[in-house]
Design a protein that fits this description.
The complex is a heterodimer of chains A (542) and B (191). Chain A is mainly α and 542 residues long. Chain A has two domains: 171 residues, Orthogonal Bundle (Fumarate Reductase Iron-sulfur Protein, Chain B, domain 2), CATH 1.10.1060; 334 residues, no CATH class. Helices cover 47% and strands 5% of the residues of chain A. Chain A is built from 23 helices and seven strands. In chain A, strand 6, helix 21 and strand 7 form a beta-alpha-beta unit. Chain A is globular. In chain A, 55% of the residues are buried. Helices cover 72% and strands 0% of the residues of chain B. In chain B, helix 5 packs across helix 8. Chain B contains nine helices and no strands. About 3% of the residues of chain B have low confidence. Chain B is mainly alpha-helical and 191 residues long. The longest helix of chain B has 50 residues. Chain B has two domains: 140 residues; 27 residues, no CATH class. Classes of the chains: A mainly alpha (542), B mainly alpha (191).
């Protein structure tokens, strides 16, 4: 009841227009449904990050260190010196507005502070005041302002309303990557202990047990063995995966979300079926790791150092097992980290070999340095060389569209491979409108650590532009399945679509491949991986 | 003189005024974007709003409004406003702006005032449907939150063999009463 307006508020609230104030003079109200819970202090302690203590964003006192302004100022200065790109991004924006209406959170929430230019301006205003002569002299007139507690709260609220998807950067004529500004902003917030729990606890788990969910090695193995049983029920084949095997040719790493959360679990079953097929047919030699059991890297949303720590375990495990190279599953942020940061942070991975497909002989030149190949590239190559026996009609119940997951799309430029794979395993494929796919793809609305439950309104608002395009292909072509190559997508899209387009379900690419894959010695398949009858099998099911 | 006929003839300008009033419930920078960007995929809020109010206006101009159609036009607009920073009254209240706009058209013409009352009743009715939709959306948000939590944890527990319901069936998401009845019937359980 406390949320209901009081009688006097009714009278003042009659005017339907918003109060029109300049952004700097519009106070920030931290609204339920839009923010994530504060980081659990125990997780912050585990990571050895500063100012671990219980705190609540809704309370006035955020329990900050006494000299928090000094810490932010010095942290800002250090990063301006260390990262040339950050300094350039602070200086060169001319506020042309090209990015302003490209952010899914701005489009969905209608809040101007979610315009990428304004979100960056939250930091730039402090930069001008603290680090430029003009800003120091002109103050507010020159777009500068002092760092106050209100500004800090504004930073925290809006920097955690950005999924670092980089759609805005596609449109910037100067090439400013506003996601990098968010990344820097979040680093600064972490210096005084202002993280959210949906990031801090997964990182702490990953740091201790190798994956975000804190699944211990034996439980990880157990989960995959449950999938073995499920696969055997559907295909009659025991796929028998290998774990932590030294001397294997290839190490496979995928997000732990695929192991534990539907519908990612079906994608995981798909990987297992594919690897079994390749082993039987071509002697393909791959192993899973129960230690490097996470591809996703939430350290990326905290600080460069944390990202580096989590990324290093993948390579440490590859070294320990003595594999030749790494095959990576359908993950989003993992690929951005691999493609853009890994080599600088933990490279060169010169103890590994340049990846070559043992089946087709294809050399993956693009992975020359990172030694890590994306499953979509690997699959597309196999299909191109006619190495997989496929029956696409098994996916005939699905009219499929493809959601370009932000990081593989904008972070590594992978547009064609997943489409090629999907079109070869499905007979019915339809594209969404051009300004919503490929490099212009809209985020699922829950990336960069924002896939919590308590910020559901934010997630649904951020998911609107993507869902709106899905709704269009659903109404026009009858699309009922949205494919993607990211575990966060597979967790976030079912929820978003349940609200916006409940008729459409979500799948991973490899799930569709496994449905179509004709495995040697398999029994007649009656259902897909989800236990739903295959086309033409509905009567048998009755 | 027939008011509905006048409204039909002046539809374009009335819709424009109504749309402008609706988007002005957003901050000025946002309102400018919602008015300017015509691509429905770049601007879903503006696109759905204009499509929705256009359909609602047509409903007001016919003999009797069709609740199903009204819902289909109203739902996309309210669905968006239900997750934005509006209070319930502001999320639904945009329907009433049309009264003021039509009142301006009618002025004080005594021949039209009577007919305007009928239109007003239609607008009130639409607003009430809007309230139903708003509540449905808000309930759905909480249901979605619950379903998401269950989807993640229940499936893991179930695969680990830790969960079975009392009939030995797999644990499901939030059951409808009908599903439960059907399950009870199947298992012969007495309710």
């Amino acid at each position: 009841m406390s949320d209901l307006p009081k009688p006097d508020e009714f009278l003042t609230g009659i005017d339907h227009k918003m109060p029109q104030t300049d952004w700097m003079n519009t106070p920030t109200e931290i609204r339920k449904g839009m923010y994530c819970y504060a980081s659990n202090y125990k997780s912050v302690e585990i990571l050895g990050l500063p100012n671990a203590r219980p705190w609540n964003p809704l309370e006035d006192d955020w329990k900050l260190p006494e000299n928090w302004q000094q810490i932010i100022h010095e942290g800002f200065k250090e990063r301006l010196d260390k990262f040339r790109s950050f300094k350039v991004f602070m200086d060169i924006c001319v506020r042309c507005g090209a990015c302003a209406d490209k952010c899914h959170f701005f489009i969905g929430t209608g809040d101007p502070k979610n315009m990428p230019v304004l979100r960056a301006e939250l930091l730039r205003s402090i930069y001008r005041n603290d680090f430029t002569t003009v800003g120091k002299i002109l103050g507010k007139i020159g777009g500068g302002r002092k760092m106050t507690l209100d500004v800090l709260k504004e930073w925290w609220y809006y920097l955690f309303q950005c999924t670092e998807c980089r759609r805005c950067s596609v449109f910037c004529p100067y090439g400013i990557d506003t996601a990098e500004v968010t990344i820097m902003g979040r680093e600064l917030l972490n210096l005084i202990g202002l993280n959210i729990d949906w990031i801090a606890t997964p990182i702490a788990n990953c740091y201790q047990t190798g994956n975000h969910l804190g699944i211990q090695p034996h439980a990880f193995k157990d989960m995959l063995e449950f999938f073995v049983e499920d696969i055997e029920e559907i295909t009659g084949i025991n796929v028998d995966p290998s774990f932590n095997r030294k001397g294997a040719d290839i190490l496979f790493i995928t997000p732990s979300g695929d192991v534990f959360a539907d519908p990612g679990t079906y994608t995981c079953m798909g990987y297992m079926m594919l690897f079994h097929y390749l082993r039987e047919k071509y002697g393909f030699d791959i192993t899973w790791s129960t230690y490097a059991s996470e591809g996703g890297n939430f350290g990326f949303f905290t600080s460069h150092e944390t990202m580096k720590r989590l990324n290093s375990k993948m390579y440490a495990e590859a070294k320990r097992l003595g594999v030749k190279w790494i095959l990576g599953g359908e993950c989003g942020h993992m690929w951005r980290v691999i493609n853009q940061y890994m080599d600088t942070m933990n490279g060169p991975a010169d103890f590994l070999e340049e990846p070559v497909s043992p089946i087709t002989g294809t050399k993956f030149e693009n992975a020359k340095s990172t030694k890590m190949v994306h499953i979509a590239e690997f699959l597309a190559d196999l299909i191109h060389h006619d190495k997989l026996e496929l029956d696409p009609s098994r996916n005939d119940n699905f009219k499929v569209s493809f959601h370009d997951s932000c990081n593989p799309a904008r972070g590594m430029g992978m547009f064609e491979e997943p489409r090629y794979v999907i079109k070869n395993v499905c007979n019915h494929f339809y594209e969404m409108p051009a300004n919503t796919i490929r490099e212009q793809t809209f985020c699922c609305g829950s990336g960069a650590g924002l896939n919590a439950g308590e910020n559901m309104e934010l997630r649904l608002a951020g998911g609107l532009p993507r869902a709106n395009a899905v709704k269009y292909v659903h109404e026009k072509f009858g699309v009922n399945m949205l494919a993607c190559v990211c575990a966060i997508d597979r967790a976030a899209l079912p929820t978003s679509l349940e609200y916006w387009v409940p008729e459409v379900d979500t799948t991973g690419m490899t799930e569709l491949v496994a449905n179509a894959l004709i495995m040697p010695g398999e029994t007649k398949r009656e259902t897909d991986l989800r236990g739903e009858p295959l086309p033409g099998m509905e009567e048998d099911d009755a | 003189m027939n008011l509905k006929k006048i409204l039909k003839e002046n539809k374009k300008q009335i819709i424009k005024k109504w749309f402008d009033a609706v988007v002005e419930t957003y901050p000025s920078d946002t309102a400018a974007f919602l008015k300017r960007q015509k691509d429905p995929f770049a601007n879903p809020v503006g696109g759905m709003t204009i499509e929705g109010i256009d359909g609602l206006f047509d409903q007001l101009c016919i003999e009797e409004i069709d609740p199903e159609k009204v819902t289909s036009f109203l739902d996309p607009i309210i669905r968006i406003r239900a997750i934005q920073s509006f209070t319930p009254s502001k999320a639904v209240g945009f329907v009433f702006y049309l009264k003021r706009i039509i009142r301006d058209e009618v002025k004080n013409d005594p021949k039209l005032v009577g007919q305007f009352r009928d239109i007003e009743t239609g607008i009130d009715q639409i607003a009430l449907y809007g309230f139903d939709i708003y509540m449905k959306c808000r309930e759905q948000i909480y249901e979605i939150r619950a379903n998401e939590a269950k989807r993640i944890s229940f499936s893991a527990f179930e695969r680990a063999g830790l969960l079975r319901d009392k009939h030995g069936n797999d644990p499901g998401l939030l059951h409808d009463a009908e599903d439960l009845d059907a399950e009870n019937e199947e298992s012969g359980a007495k309710v």
